[in-house]
Each structure stands twice: as C-alpha cells, then as structure tokens.
Amino acid sequence: MADSAGEVREVANPKQYDQALTQLRKASRTVSRRRGRNRRTGQAPSRRWEKANAVRNRVHHRVANLRENHLHQATARIPAEYGTVVVEDLNVKGMVRNRRLSRRISDAAFGELRRQLTYKTQRHGGRLIVADRWMPSSKTCPRCGAVKAKLPLGGRVFECDVCGLVLDRDANAGHNLAALAAANGKTGTGVTGDPGPLMVVPKPRGAKQKTRTGRTRKGTGTRGAGATPRQGTETRDRRQDTRREQLALW
User: Fold this and answer.
1) Is the CB of residue 158 less than 8 Å from the CB of residue 151?
2) pLDDT digit string (tens) for 12-21?
3) Rounded-to-integer distance, Cα 237 and Cα 207, Å
C-alpha cells in the first residue's frame, strides 16, 4: 500500500491454508481409511468415519475463521485512516489458472477484500476508486511516467529504462494508484468523511430490454396500452349503467 505522502506499507499474506495443510492432509488420510457413505449402494457411514470427518471439518472451519478475521482487521484500518481508497480490478479468474499460484491466490481472498473495502469506505463516508483492469500500474514509472514494454511475473523489481529508477514492483504499483487518485482531484490522505463528489465507476451495460406494452392475440395483432376495450366489455358496462338509471327512476 502507498499513499500520496510517499509512505509504503506492506500487509503480508498470513497463508492460513498453508499453515493448516499438514493437519488437513492427516485428517483427510484418516477419513479415507474409514467406511464412508456410498450413495450408489445406499451404504451408511460408520461412526468412526463421522468422527474423523468432524475433525476435518473443524480444521476447515478454523481456517475460514482465521482468514475472515485477518481480512476484517486489514480492511477496517484503511477506510478509518484514509478518505479515498484506490484498488485494482484484477483478473482473479485468470490468475487462478496458474497451478503454481492458484492456492495462494485463493487463500488471499481478493474478492472478499474488495467487497469489504467497498462497504466500509461507504460506512466511513469515504470514496473507493477502482482502477481499470488494463492499467499498467506495475510497468509505469512513477517518476518520469515511462511505460515499460515487458515485465514478467517473475520479475519482482521494476527498473525504468529512461530515468533508471529501481523499485519493487508492488510498491511501484502502489505509487501509481496513489497518483491516480491525485489525478482525479481526490487525494488519498484526506480526513475520513471529508466532503466531495463520489467516484462513480462505470459498469458495463447489458442487452437493452424492451418493456412489454400488451399481449399479443391471434388474428388481432399487438394490443397497445391505448387500445380500445373489447366489444363485450363495453356492452356489459352500458347495460350496468342502464340498470342503475332504471333503479334510480323507480
């Protein structure tokens, strides 16, 4: 994370799933050695399988609770300190296709992190700006603005070819996101709840939907909102009016 004052802070990934991976492997091995449920033959699980499965579920539940607690603590500090928060719109679905990084990326829960930041900034009266997915935040030099042609994922250090600036690629992306907030006229070091227009993020529009104005009848075409009523309905209304007049005269 970087702010408009130039300060860079790092929040490490606690890797809750990796820490519990040894326990999960042991618990899953124990479950596989018990007689479980067979839906094809209708076999009921044994008591030993149910106990072992409960132990494995407790490990999964603990990992989920630890992850949720870490995300809430991380997202609660940021909106309380800064009035404007800028995040990147990452292609998480494409990132998890990498089999070497999919488990770590899923454990970090990027989508839940953004969801919590969205409603917590609104609750504190701040603003949330979502950078475009194709913004070259890691390839752009924050000093001279030059964009690097290629920066592979394995290269963790950004080196500008024009001014020679050497910087960590994540810190470089943080500086560029802070500059994006300043370019839109919204500083990232403002006091929480300061007045100002909200940053509206455009959303892609779907297919245009036409409002149905009437029902289609066979042989009569489409009946619009201003179409005349049917003959039977009009005759019945006139009969009722005539009946009321006769009763009134009588």
Assistant:
1) yes
2) 888 999 999 9
3) 43
